[in-house]
Design goal:
This protein is mostly helical and about 200 residues long. It has nine helices and two strands. The protein has a two-stranded antiparallel ribbon with strand order 1-2.
Length: about 200
Amino acid sequence: MDRITYTKNDSDPRRFLPAVTSGPYPQEAKQTLAWLISYAAEHNWTLGDMAAQAGVSAKTMRSILKGTYEANAEPHLLALAALRARLTVDQAGEDLPFVETKLARYTMDLAEFTRRYHYAAVMIGPTQWGKTEAVKSALEAYVTSEQQSMEHYLEDQYLVAKAATVTVAPTGEVVLVCAEDHDTILANIKAALAK
């Protein structure tokens, strides 16, 4: 007869809390990890569920939580912070303020470069890292700057600048329209993007 061995599958993520609190990460990252562990426990998530939500493997997630991840953990910690922000928004049902991270700064610099030199750029990466909000924030700052510079210049140009808007299309693109007949142009852009 075969011998049957039973093992205890401790899927409760709270088992990682001691390692997180004494781990090698900055205090803010420790707070994020502790918050995610508590959220996971409240919602009956396993380690695999947490990893899937963060976009990493279960092995990587376990190493991060234990504080034994040997490579640069910063990209994963940023992804986990973004996950926390998304879950917080989902819980509260409201938008949180934009927070400028290194990725956001890079994205805003890229947006400014493309605007200044009339290049086109495509940024592709994991969702929920703040790329869209960073581009939107950079374009809103540009619009504000243009409005201020036109305020005491030509009245008709100021009215065009004042009517400028930055919107996120349903398909995810960030659209800046600063032109006469603004509403028609924006509707046409959105229709073209939807095709």
